[in-house]
C-alpha cells in the first residue's frame, strides 16, 4: 500500500513538474508575423529622387533584425521602399521585378517609373484582403525625370513630390510639412530625409537601427548607410 501511495505521489510530482509547451501561441513575440515596423520616405529633388528608410524589423514586440534593407531594387533606376509584412512586400516586389523585366525585353528599353507603379498598384489592389503591404515607389526615367508614387494599403496610387510611410511617419508629418521645398539640391534633400527618418526613429518603437539612403538619378542608384552613432542629434523632452 505504501509503495502504491509512493508511486502515485511520484507520478503526481512528475505531472506537475512537466512544463506545458504550446505548439503555437500568436501572443508569443517570436511567433508573431514578421513585419518591417518602419519609417520609409522618398523625395523628388532637382535631378532625381532621394529614398530612405530605417532598418528595424519586428516580430511582435521582438526586434528580429536591426539591419534590414527596406530599399528594394526593381531596375537600375527604379526602387521601392517597403512597409508592412516582410514576406508580403518581398513577394510583391519579386513579382513586379519579373514583370518589369519582361516588359523591358519586349520594349528593348528601360521601362517607365509609372509602369512599375501601376504593377504595384494592381498587385496591392487585387490582393488587398490577403496581404499587408504599403509601398513607396521611386525612380528616374527620361520622360518625366525623378518620380515618387505612393501605393498604401488597399492599392491606391498617388504621385507626390514627398511621401512618407510606415508607423514612424505619423511622428514627422509636421517636420515634413515645415521643411520640404520643391527643387531642393541633392545635398539639401539628403539632409532633409536623414533628419526626418532620425526624428521618427527617436519616437517610434517599431523604427530604429541605422538609416539607409539611396540617390536615384539618370546614372542609377547610389546607396548610403548612416550608422546609429553617426545620426544627427536632436533634443528629446
From TrEMBL:
GO terms for molecular function: threonine-type endopeptidase activity. Pfam families: Proteasome. Keywords: Cytoplasm, Hydrolase, Nucleus, Protease, Proteasome, Threonine protease, Zymogen. One of its GO terms (cellular component) is proteasome core complex, beta-subunit complex. Its main location: cytoplasm. Gene3D superfamilies: Glutamine Phosphoribosylpyrophosphate, subunit 1, domain 1. It is found in: Cytoplasm; Nucleus. One of its GO terms (biological process) is proteolysis involved in protein catabolic process. PROSITE patterns: PROTEASOME_BETA_1, PROTEASOME_BETA_2. It catalyses: Cleavage of peptide bonds with very broad specificity. Component of the proteasome complex. Non-catalytic component of the proteasome, a multicatalytic proteinase complex which is characterized by its ability to cleave peptides with Arg, Phe, Tyr, Leu, and Glu adjacent to the leaving group at neutral or slightly basic pH. The proteasome has an ATP-dependent proteolytic activity. Component of the proteasome, a multicatalytic proteinase complex which is characterized by its ability to cleave peptides with Arg, Phe, Tyr, Leu, and Glu adjacent to the leaving group at neutral or slightly basic pH. The proteasome has an ATP-dependent proteolytic activity. This is Proteasome subunit beta. It comes from Frankliniella occidentalis. The gene is LOC113208107.
